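[Discussion] Sanity-checking designs against the backbone

I'm trying to build intuition for which residues belong where. Below is a structure token string of 397 positions. I'd appreciate it if someone posts a full sequence so I can compare it with mine line by line.
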């Protein structure tokens, strides 16, 4: 028992414990398994971007505290990116904020915009930091579940718009929206986003959108919610460099929004990291200006890897949900005679030397996610081929 008889950990965080990513990555190291659990690439991004960081270090740019909102070069590059890809216009001085990755951007946004007791609607399954950040802000999480639809030619997880509308109450403050969606790979359509926008404007809700996989979409397009009528002034848009440029360790993210929203988020962010990633900010500014060919090649490369791993998983006996976005594949383990994703993932390294993530950890209603398991395909093709070979043993093991 802690001094004074009270637990040391704040009760708002007591339920979360160690993240599943830390647990499964440690299991991968301990067993020498292929880690398809945590979503980080196993090779670096463009050499010219890495060299830009080295050049900034050598030139003494960013080695001391950068400006609190982020260096002007990066804020300008973010504004240019939003205009180039989506036709959205943002003032780099008043409407862009640089953060320590998207994770800090989410935390700062929720800490800034929520009062204790406010309700936050989040699509379930959700990235695990969402739940912790809502709790730290004193908010109440209201999950709306994406449900598997296997009736069409392409099985996918779908949003029930009626369920979303029914989840809004007089206590709802904001919707936390993730599209392209981790872990299911769902990309919300223009029609679905239009319905979300209509609901938000009708009920006067804020929306925080996590769009870190914006360039990782296949056969579809990403559309920011902020581009819909009435949404620019009520949407905090979040993205980052890690997923698009394969430098996840740099932790460079950003927020775009109206001056009032960005000012509010900055008020919270300044008491978290204050500033971070000085030299890397200069490199990311250059990365955002890479030609269209880079972004097209990225998608083509990941699409080939998606198909490689999806085929291997199907051959191993999984039911496979091919994602429309992100670099994760969700599978159903019931065709393998399994129903408990936690037990399956904890045993998988010993059974065939591969690590995955149980989707149930991303659910409030864990029974809804129990039979689903997520694999990452942001790895070298040789690694994915070896993983597919190892997973074939599930049929015969």
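Best answer:
Here's mine. Compare freely.
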């Amino acid at each position: 028992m802690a001094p004074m008889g009270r637990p040391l950990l704040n009760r708002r965080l007591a339920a979360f414990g160690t993240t599943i990513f830390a647990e499964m990555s440690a299991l991968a190291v301990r067993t020498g398994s292929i880690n398809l659990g945590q979503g980080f690439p196993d090779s670096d991004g463009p050499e010219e971007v890495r060299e830009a960081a080295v050049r900034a270090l050598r030139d003494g740019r960013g080695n001391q505290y950068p400006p609190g909102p982020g260096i002007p070069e990066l804020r300008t590059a973010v504004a240019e990116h939003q205009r180039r890809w989506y036709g959205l216009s943002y003032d780099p001085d008043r409407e862009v904020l640089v953060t320590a990755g998207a994770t800090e951007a989410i935390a700062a946004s929720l800490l800034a915009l929520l009062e204790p007791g406010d309700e936050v609607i989040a699509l379930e399954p959700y990235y695990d930091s969402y739940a912790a950040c809502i709790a730290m802000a004193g908010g109440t999480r209201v999950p709306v579940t994406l449900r598997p639809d296997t009736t069409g030619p392409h099985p996918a997880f779908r949003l029930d718009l009626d369920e979303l509308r029914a989840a809004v109450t007089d206590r709802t403050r904001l919707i936390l929206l993730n599209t392209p969606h981790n872990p299911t790979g769902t990309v919300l359509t223009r029609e679905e986003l239009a319905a979300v926008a209509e609901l938000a404007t009708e009920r006067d809700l804020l929306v925080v959108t996590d769009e870190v996989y914006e360039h990782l979409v296949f056969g579809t397009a990403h559309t920011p919610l902020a581009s819909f009528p009435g949404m620019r002034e009520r949407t905090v848009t979040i993205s980052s460099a890690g997923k698009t440029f394969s430098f996840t360790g740099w932790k460079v993210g950003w927020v775009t929004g109206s001056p009032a929203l960005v000012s509010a988020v900055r008020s919270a962010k300044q008491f978290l990291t204050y500033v971070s990633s000085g030299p890397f900010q200069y490199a990311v500014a250059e990365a955002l200006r890479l030609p269209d060919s880079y972004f097209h090649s990225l998608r083509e490369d990941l699409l080939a890897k998606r198909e490689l791993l999806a085929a291997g998983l199907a051959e191993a006996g999984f039911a496979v949900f091919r994602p429309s976005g992100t670099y994760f594949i969700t599978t159903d383990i019931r065709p393998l005679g399994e129903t408990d994703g936690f037990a399956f993932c904890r045993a998988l390294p010993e059974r065939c030397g591969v690590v995955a993530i149980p989707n149930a950890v991303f659910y409030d209603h864990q029974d809804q996610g129990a039979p689903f398991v997520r694999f990452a395909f942001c790895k070298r093709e040789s690694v994915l081929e070896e993983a597919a070979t190892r997973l074939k043993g599930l049929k015969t093991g």
